[in-house]
Each structure stands twice: as structure tokens, then as C-alpha cells.
Predict the structure.
Amino acid sequence: MQEDRYSLTQRLLHWGIAALVFLALGAGILFFTLGFDGLMKSFGGDITNALYKYHKTAGVLVLGLMVLRLILRLTLGAPAKPESLTAMERRLSTGVQHLLYAMLLTLPALGWAATAAGGYPVEFFAWKLPGLIGKDKELSDLLFTLHGLAALAVMLLLGLHIAGALRHWLIKRDGVMRRISLLG
């Protein structure tokens, strides 16, 4: 790994997970705003079922890829933070990154557990995965609430992460974005 960049595998995982998270959050926003009945009325059964199936698939992928990303981060480390960062920027970026890692592991795990407790299939493409916990309506309701709150936390953290990245890229122009960029 170059001293000032994450490994290519780490960079590919970053951007792949980002794409999956944005797709899953988009579907989640539809679920929250329209509800199941609203989705059925707006899109019909086939599209509604596909939205749920691929939301769950994206969640399982995020969970698995985040475990891999965490292992790589622990084994390969991260490039040193640039000298251009202030002490506050170092603390903020480290805190946001650590919280994003934690929430991107927690969010899909809560979704998996909530789905299983609700008696719904945990889908991964065409496969049904084990639920890991039994059906329990009250637990499912609680876990779906926590899943929604975790999604809000992820959106807040992503906003901070993206704002910081844009600041370094467009305003400070200090090369911080090169660390995670797939280009050059």
C-alpha cells in the first residue's frame, strides 16, 4: 500500500459499500414514507416485493463487505493523516469514520433481526437466509424502530463525511481525497 493511500481493495470496498448504502437508504426512505400499502398502491406487487428483496440483499452485502473492510482496516491499517489537517479535523474525521463503521455493521444486523422477528424472509438475491431469531412481533417492532433510528444516524454521519470530503476536495485542495480516490 502506498503510504498516502488506502489499498486498492480498501478503496473499491469504500465506493462499493457507499453505492449499496445509498440504494438501501433510498429504498428505506420509500418504505418509511409510503409504507407497504402505499408502495403496493403506487408500484404494484412485483416492484414492491423487488424493493424489499433488494433492500435486504443490499443490507446483507453491506454487512458482509463491512466485516471484510474492518478486517482489512485492522490488518492493513490506514494511511497517515495529512499534515494539513488540524487537530480538530483529525478528531472529527476519526470519530465520524469509527461511528460509520459501527453503524454500517449495526444497521444491517438490526434489519436482519427485525425481519426475522417479524416472520419475514431474510432474502439475499434468490436465497432465503436463516432468520437467526424466532418470530416475535413486539421484538420485531422494536428492532425495526432501532433500524430506522440507525438509518437516520447513518444519514447524519454520511452528511458529515461527505461535507468534510467536499471541503478538502473543493476548498482546501489538500489531497485528502486522493487517499480514497479510485483515480490516479
Q: What stands out?
A: The helical segments are 8-76, 87-117, 137-172. The two ends are 14 Å apart (CA to CA). The mean pLDDT is 96. The chain has three helices and two strands.
